[in-house]
Amino acid sequence: MENNLKKYTTSIATINSFIWKITELGLAIASAGLVLYFLLGEKSGVFPTSVANNFSYIANSLGLEGISTILAAAVFLLIFKRLMDKK
């Protein structure tokens, strides 16, 4: 029984790691599209323009309070991660 539990735990950890890698890749692609849009403007292409439009839509729907809450949570998570990595 304990052996099966270790197998499932290892499998879940592997799947979790894979999902995080895919999420990081997607965020990196979206960030690259946004940077391209900032550098080149409307002439940057279809993908960067659509990424910029999506980000502006999300920012407008969240409002100032929502954006500041997300930024505060991101800073908190980065500090927490650094503290945990030092241990």
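Above is the first protein from milestone M3; the second protein from the same milestone is given next.
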Amino acid sequence: MSRRGALLVAAGRATRMGFDKLWVELRGRPVVAYGLELLARCQLDALVLVVAEPRLDQARALLAELGLRGRVCVGGERRRDSVARGLACLEACDWVVVHDAARPLAAPDLVLRGLEAARATGAAVPGVPIADTVKRVQGGRVVETLRREELWRIQTPQVFRRDLLARALAESDDDVGDEATLIERLGGEVRVFAGAEDNLKLTTPDDLRLAAALLDARGAMSQLRVGIGYDVHPFGEGRPLVLGGVALDYPQGLAGHSDGDALCHAIIDALLGAAAAGDIGGWFPSSEERYRGASSLELLARVRAALAERGWRVGNVDATVIAEQPRLAPGVPEMRQHLARALDVEVECVSVKATTTDRLGALGRGEGLAAQAVALLMKSSAASPQ
């Protein structure tokens, strides 16, 4: 099996930034930490962090703090020198991922897609097509308008077959913007795969502010989870029809181990699905006698409390009951109130609707009733939606 290693290049001087951008804090962590964690998530076989000599001890301490295994080596005066030194320090690998630590927002899929794209030619780079018109300017005067259809902005992580990269570095001493340029000069073919618009390179202080905003946006999205639930029960004799904790005036109830409240069951599964916490059958199995005839509304409240202990609170629930009979509209306001109390939310956060199948199928023949629900969970520390 091919071994895959990575070089995280963090030895630059950041002359355009005016300070060492790779070690400045970005949302509480040094910029270089993001690149290390990216490469660690890709389950590569070896990792080398290339830094300026004054950062050696700090780099080793950061690896230990993050719980990562890897080597640290001193970079050179130029980027290609740093890559060459890192490559010499890298354990035996067939493929090498080279990533610029100044791109802290790169995602693991870029590494994985790069490894796949490089298989054909031994070299692959991520790129984004240029959308703006590009002109070559000299002395404030336009001398040429370039065909933007042929122009791409190239990013990292870039992926190379190790022997090809080593040869390119050995045969040229030129200072280049990226190692792919050296491969090109050898006559090698470099494949381009789709990069990412948010794979930002930190060059100016404004870039740091933009990166912080993008990280905040990602964090906000990670605070939200959506789940879907569905439940169906046949009608049965000898028990009341209970939906959303409300006993309805109907000659038949819903068969089931508990009280058969399909509406509550669908909401429970939606909540558990959003939290990736299993399903209602796993939490309240029908094989356990203690749940026989249990109030599904109480089970819903127990699930809500258990998820709260895991740091989740309910944002809102939207549920639909599917049945030909009975007419549910008169009971919906009370259902919403019961459900809101069990979920510890305002009534306005709970929607209950009813529909039919226009007499199609088992539900249309009145043999039973179904419910489906969508639930939004939010991390307890997240701000309430406006």
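Note on the second protein: The CA atoms of residues 257 and 286 lie 6 Å apart.
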